[in-house]
Write a structure and sequence with these properties.
Layout: E1 7-8, H1 16-21, E2 39-44, H2 59-69, E3 79-84, E4 97-99, E5 103-110, E6 126-129, E7 135-137, E8 144-149, H3 151-159, E9 165-168
Antiparallel strand pairs: 1-5, 2-8, 2-9, 3-5, 3-6, 4-5, 7-8
Length: 179
C-alpha cells in the first residue's frame, strides 16, 4: 500500500488520548509519554557524527527509530506527529492542541516513515501510531526522545546498533540537557 503524504490536521482529536495521560511537569518523562506502557526508553536524538541542536532530531536517528517502531504497530500507514507551533510558523492559524509543558502543537498525519521528514524547520519530537501501540515524545529544548511501548518494542530499540538508548522509568527526572 503506498504511503499517504504527510498532511496537517484541522481535527485535533487524534491527540485526546495523549493529552489525557500526560502530566505537565516537564522535569519528568511522564510529560512526554503517557503511562500504561510496559516499558520506556530514552533515545539520543543526536547522530553519531555531530550533535544536533537542541529541540530537533537527527534525520538518521528518526529514520532508524521509525524503522524499529514500524514493525510494532498494526497501523504503520497512519501515524500522528506533533510539532510546536513556534517551529511551524507556516501553519499559523491552523488548530493546535496543548501538550505539556503547556505548548501549542500542530498535528500532522502520515506514515511511521514520515518521522524523518521535516515539518516547518524541524523534525517532529512527538509521534504515535493510530493504534497507540507505542508513543515517542521529547522536549522542544531537549536532545532526547522517550519511547513507551511493549517490552518487545523497547528491547528492539535497545538492541538496535543504529540507536543510542537506555532504559528509563516513567517517573524518572529527565536530564537537564537543554540548559
Amino acid at each position: 500500500m503506498p504511503s499517504v503524504p504527510i498532511r496537517p490536521l484541522t481535527d485535533t482529536s487524534a491527540a485526546r488520548w495523549l493529552t489525557a495521560g500526560l502530566v505537565g511537569d516537564e522535569r519528568t518523562i511522564r510529560a512526554f509519554v503517557p503511562p500504561g506502557f510496559a516499558s520506556y526508553v530514552r533515545v539520543s536524538a543526536a547522530g553519531a557524527a555531530v550533535p544536533e541542536p537542541i529541540g530537533t532530531v537527527d534525520r538518521a536517528v528518526a529514520a532508524a527509530l521509525a524503522g524499529v517502531l514500524r514493525g510494532f504497530t498494526s497501523t504503520p500507514e497512519t501515524c500522528y506527529f506533533a510539532l510546536w507551533e513556534g517551529y511551524a510558523v507556516e501553519y499559523q492559524g491552523q488548530p493546535t492542541v496543548t501538550l505539556p509543558p503547556d505548548r501549542g502543537m500542530h498535528l500532522f498525519a502520515g506514515s511511521v516513515n514520515d518521522a524523518s521528514r521535516q515539518l516547518g524547520d524541524r523534525l517532529p519530537m512527538r509521534w504515535w501510531p493510530d493504534d497507540h501501540a507505542w508513543c515517542v515524545g521529547g522536549y522542544m529544548y531537549g536532545r532526547s526522545l522517550y519511547v513507551g511501548g511493549s517490552a518487545e518494542v523497547t528491547a528492539a530499540i535497545l538492541a538496535s546498533e543504529l540507536l543510542m538508548a537506555w532504559p528509563v522509568d516513567l517517573s524518572d527526572v529527565r536530564p537537564d540537557e537543554y540548559e
